[in-house]
Write a structure and sequence with these properties.
Strand content: 5-15%
Distance between the termini: 76 Å
Order of helices and strands: HEHEHEEHEEHH
Largest sheet: 6 strands, mixed
Number of strands: 6
């Protein structure tokens, strides 16, 4: 009786394994993606915590390139490259998102965008970030416009200095047709009480520049320029005070 039961169990297990193997053939493979690279033990940014915000995400696509790609994808691409580059310089990086999603509930009691931004702010501040860089792409009706443009909070001296250093490094590294200077702008993400900059990495409305922003080589140059700018700012002997957090 015991031998018969054991044989029945073996047959059942073999049948189950066969069924599972067959099902596995029809389940699409999802690669495991590391959420973060590991900070280097040495480098100019060891001991510093930097927030990298990939603008938009999920339902919020941002600007729309003529080829059909949404801004959110370009932003995330540059943000992840920047994260890895900052890690290579020794920094600890706080990401507001590392995939294609928004940070709001499906049906929040407040506006989706508001909840999304509040949750980004919480991640940055709880993570102990010393500075913040928000990655975006530009768009304009004049399709001849091109080049990176950095924005800062107008009443924040530290943010103004920080944005200017980033702008200079982007101009030097990318050599755009027009060497822009950093400008003031009113953005929620730059009002958190730490030196912050919103970086428009290029114009999606410019066909040539949008094509560059699809290439690994150019995106690596953008990320490295921003990362080198951050390191250069931390290396400066004096930093002005940052404005307190603005309640909105």
């Amino acid at each position: 009786m015991e031998k018969k039961s054991a044989r029945a169990i073996r047959i059942t297990l073999c049948s189950l394994i066969a069924v599972l193997s067959l099902l596995a053939m029809f389940i699409p493979y999802e690669p495991v993606r590391s959420s973060s690279s590991v900070p280097a033990m040495e480098g100019p940014l060891v001991g510093h915590v930097i927030a990298v915000d990939a603008g938009h995400g999920g339902y919020d696509g941002g600007a729309h390139a003529p080829g059909g790609r949404w801004e959110k994808a370009y932003n995330l691409d540059i943000a992840l490259r920047l994260r890895d580059y900052l890690h290579s310089l020794g920094a600890t990086v706080v990401m507001t998102r590392d995939g294609d999603y928004a940070l709001c509930d499906p049906k929040p009691k407040i506006r989706k965008k508001r909840q999304d931004m509040e949750r980004r702010a919480d991640l940055v501040l709880v993570g102990g970030a010393e500075v913040l860089v928000s990655i975006h792409m530009n768009e304009y009706r004049d399709r001849g416009q091109s080049g990176p443009q950095v924005f800062y909070r107008p009443d924040c001296p530290a943010g103004t200095q920080f944005a200017s250093v980033l702008q200079n490094h982007l101009v030097e590294a990318l050599v755009p047709k027009r060497a822009r200077t950093a400008l003031s702008g009113d953005f929620y993400i730059t009002s958190l009480g730490i030196p912050s900059a919103l970086v428009e990495c290029g114009f999606l409305s410019n066909t040539a520049e949008e094509a560059l922003l699809r290439t690994d080589a150019y995106c690596d140059r953008v990320a490295a320029a921003i990362g080198d700018g951050i390191a250069a700012w931390f290396a400066m002997e004096e930093h002005p005070e940052a404005a307190v957090r603005e309640e909105r």
